[in-house]
Amino acid sequence: MNCIMQLPSNLSLPFFAYGVFRPGQLAFHRLQELVEEIRPQSVIRGALKLRDGLPIIDPSVQSEVYGDVLIFKSELQAEAYQRIIELEPDKHYRWDVTSSNGAAVNVLFGKSPNKGSVDFEGTQWDGRNDPLFTSALEVVEETLKANAEFEWDLKPLFRLQMAYLLLWSSIERYVSLKYHLGRDVTRKVSFLADEEAFVHALQQTVSAGRTVFRADDPKEKYTLDASNPKESLCYYYQIRSNITHRGKAVVRDHDRLKDSLSELLSIFRDVLSKGFDNSV
Fold first, then answer.
1. What residues contact 158, with CB distance under 8 A and at least 6 apart?
2. Inter-residue contact 193 to 233 (CB < 8 Å)
3. Counting Cβ atoms within 10 Å, is residue 102 exposed (0-12), middle (13-18) or buried (19+)?
4. pTM (2 decimals)?
5. Per-residue b or e along 180-192, where b marks 16 or more CB atoms closer than 10 Å to that residue's CB
6. What distance in Å separates the CA atoms of residue 278 and residue 210, rounded to the nearest whole number?
7. pLDDT tens per residue, range 38-93
8. 15-119 homologous superfamily
9. What's residue 230's pLDDT?
10. For the chain, what are the domain ranges?
């Protein structure tokens, strides 16, 4: 279980955003309404590193990190920092004060930045370049196209299943960066059904309903319904752990998995694009 971070000692200082809270990144939506002014392309001393795919700063290195200084509305400063610490796990970050362009700012430096991290090649991190949002989705699409036909050796089925799990890894990465970096995956995924982009893409993509029963509880079922985003999300989530590999049902499993993979890939690509485009 992740511990909630403490608030910074001086809430009146601006916030130096270089990761998920930077304008144009997935978590900026949490702060957008609280921001009075943005000072783009600001600089602080330190070096960017990556740990678990997240950017952290090592302040001991004499280099430069670019980000944006967020100045919060005076009556909303406490609320803004509360929203920040609700997303960030304190195992990765610690608060400190540093100087950006001659002015004091609060910043999240990396805790023990050399442990479990790798050097970042560059001075600006962009979540759009996350491999789970780029190469992984290309692999999913390539696998889908190459395994559209059922074969009795089940290799296409297994490959589609692997691609489906990889797609869900990408989705879980998205909701982690946008809503919470902790481990409560099921709760984070549920937020997806409330996103306008998910609702719209679901309606545009799904033309017919389907039902899946839980393998561990056949009395419980989930229905894919373009008019019911929450139920549809449960349907897609259940598919990932509900594949059987025996008897004539494997043909149905292959087709159901292929259709679900094709639909969810298209839906998620739209959600991902809108998630970044709307965070400005």
1. none
2. yes
3. exposed
4. 0.93
5. bbbeeeeebbbeb
6. 31
7. 999 999 999 999 998 899 999 999 999 999 999 999 999 999 999 999 987 667 89
8. Gamma-glutamyl cyclotransferase-like (3.10.490.10)
9. 97
10. 15-119, 130-277
